[in-house]
TrEMBL record:
It comes from Vanilla planifolia (Vanilla). This is Vacuolar protein sorting-associated protein 62. Residues 474-494 are annotated as: Disordered. It holds the Pfam family Vps62. Residues 1-24 form the signal peptide. Keywords: Signal.
Amino acid sequence: MVSSLIYSMLLLIVFFLLSGSGNGITPAKEPTSWKKKHQGHQFAKGRIELGGLEIREISTLANASFDDVTLPSGFFHLGSRSHSALLTLTLIAREASHSNSSPALSPPTDFLPIESSFGTTFLWLPVPLPGFLPAGLLRSASTSKPLLSSLRCVRQEFFQSCDNTGNSPALLCFKNIVDDAMPNLDQITKLLQKYSPWVHFHPDERYLPSSVSWFFNNGALLFSKTDPNGPTPVDPAGRALPQGGTNDGAYWLDLPSDDAEKDRVKAGELSTAEAYVHVKPALGGTATDIVFWLFYPFNGPGRAKVGLINIGLGHIGEHVGDWEHVTLRISNFDGVLKRMYFSQHTSGTWVEATDLVYSTPGQRPAAYATLNGHAFYPKAGLVLQGEVEKGIGIRDDTAEGGQTMNLTARAVIAAAEYLGDGAVAEPAWLQYMRDWGPKVSYDVSKEVDKLVRFLPGKMKRKVRNLVERLPPELFGQEGPTGPKVKASWDGDEV
């Protein structure tokens, strides 16, 4: 099988070809007036017409091969748009007409095997004729190369390079698909009303979210390494915050200096909390990702489990400022929710729509926030990160019975770049690329000594070993950067 590195190189080569270097196919940008006129007119229509090419989408199980799927008359497989999810979205297409023009579809000349983690399902990268490009991967139940007639490649003139889809040539953008197959503002509003999640907080949660403006209004301070006058208050809209650039460590936000006010702000204010929504193309523009960002003034300490004993981790895990998110992936073909992403510390999990818990009223998907740490999970209960089989690890606790947050009522569209300049007024604080909390270092070994001083020797060793394996984010009390600095802002969730 072709290694992941070679596969990545092959994909980068295809992406380079699409960048327009030397091939003259980079499309000219359409005027803004044209975009506004056509935005959303093919969204959720079941098919997308691209001037002689009709594209549809089908859902198949990841362990099913293309040979198991019966297609409508005249349609051919273009390939899978994902090779990691349990339920895979596959594109099919037929030529509507090409009269005097060249054919839009052509069989590949060969298939290259790709490493697969699906056991008895094998993945293949199509090798196209000159002038054509693969739109996805082929799945097969056999180690034998598929028949060349199993799939079609698409003439390269139908493609354009992608800005917001993870830069994977297996997920190429079709021309104009972002302009007219992505939802317009009215359609986004309807999607928010239909699918915005309910967030369930743990009954013992002390550190709840707030709006960003509440945080600023209640004494948040901006620190600078170069300002001799000390910290300055932050205006409610964050307009005076440093804008743009990179996180150079020169600025950071912190809680009020007064101890009583500090404790009050740490607790957040759920009645003011908002979900800051980022809408962006996914899977080459054939899907829409709706990302809900929640802000917490404070992230609480971690908790560990060692056998039957639960241990609070002192200051380990605490930091000022906490950004967490969930993502809805909507198909642009039918406007239906396909899966949901739950951010969990430095990673996350995709869950198929059929496996989600749906909350009433409204039968909308539920997201359960962990106690103190605010990671999101699709179901209530304990998730142990560590040596699960031995009952040793960091506790991620979620539960029913706590306060809830209706994201439909609290959704604020903060960014949707594909709609064009001025379509969505981004809040000023979104351009603040520095830390939302200070970095305060402490002696981890001393913290551990405090935790284990009353434990028997064997337990002490287990706790020390557990702490040594904790992710770096739990040390140093370092505040996070904001949403626009995250790798997923311009790319796909990983």
